[in-house]
Amino acid sequence: MKVVTSSEIGEIDKKTIEYYGISAPILMERAGVAVAARVKEVLREGRILVLAGTGNNGGDGLVAARELHNAGYTVKVLITGKRNRLKENARLQHDIARKMRVPMEFRDKVTAGDLHGSLVLDAVFGTGLSKDIQGPLAEVIRAVNGSSARVVAVDIPSGVSSDTGQVLGAALHCAATVTFGAPKRGHFLHPGAGLSGELFVEDIGFPRALFESVRTAVPSRRDVASLVPAREPYSHKGAYGHVLLVAGSRGKTGAAMMAAHAALRSGAGLVSIGVADSLLGIYEGRVTEEMTLPLEDTGRGSLARGALTGILEFLDERADVLALGPGIGRDRETAELVRELLPRCAAPMVVDADGINALEGKAALLRKARAPVILTPHPGEFSRLTGMGVKEIESDRVEAALRFAKTSGAYIILKGVPTVVADPAGEALLNPTGNAALAKGGTGDVLTGMVAALLGQGLSPLEAAVLGVYAHGLAGEIAACEKDMRSVLATDVADAVPGVFGRLTEGFDDIS
Question: For position 507, what pLDDT does the model report?
């Protein structure tokens, strides 16, 4: 499902009108009728208060108001601007509604009497809002939010940025949103996602060809299921990739085990864990299916710079993919090892955690990588990598990921809500799965193992990232159903992975 920015939907609207000849009043009529139909689904009868602005969003609301009035609902419209500020198409809809005797007032205040027992239809601001809402309109929003009224938004809740999901001054908290043509980024990015409620996407006649250039999407279950690597009847372990996982340090040995376990659960044929030599005994006592590769030690329970030779030789002779970073720590020599590996490793890499931290101030090294690199930072790690503040990243996580993917040449999995996958070519995907069960130490290590395993099975970096993130989120959902969300461990998430791939490949209907 394509996801658009305000400028993209504005251009689509313009081309629909100017090139295809579908007039603005027709599009507005279709939008308003679609909104009215959704309102009828949630309210069989009763009072409806329509808050309408003076632009196109208000025009959509006026169409819905007269449709609902005509259907027998008790409708009252408050137009929040002055009469002389009505835009051409909104004025047309106002005049039609007036002739149909829809009760309307021009007023930028709302009373308790207006709200009592009413469903509120929010048609004040649409996708074009770019500045903070202040003054009387902010007071209107606060009054509605402070009431018990249910709110249905037209296109996007008033006060939510359609591009970033950020609140611009004040924003309505809606039970549902009816949007047109395609969802907007702000419907998926928090806090906008939480303010939008249930999302309905209505087709009002935009030509499908106009969405082909949109580069942001939310992958569907069908899209993701098509990426699951086939398991041929006559095959062997070597056909499904050998992952070398360079991970762990003193005090953080569990990270390597979780990532390795997840890689095997995700279909890797072979997994070897490259560990500091002094920790080998710990791993030998814990591994079953995994193998180990002792590497040069700093003497402090961490990987030495001299481990480079052993890693490169193992990759050259045996392994297909390198996963680097879970639990390796921030020892100076270990960081130097990471920085020397990047331009010399010929295998695709998944870099996580302290592997990313080792690149602080050294992000330009990513451009020297010989093979594709997938980075899996959380916002704190991404901040250290890029020099951006966490608040700046979270204020527009899609653009932050896209910009860095383009400048670095790396594939970015920016973890969070939602997790964003961005590739150097400018495509971004917003992951629809996952829950708060994943807010637990070790779940990022699980994701690293999953993505590395999928790379080893022949998926492209973008495919491995998209499938890995989707499956990881779904595993969190399954684990939370089997246990309490608070009690889910990273190992539970890894253990839920077989259920994810089984359901995707077998076509079960009980997953999103």
Answer: 59
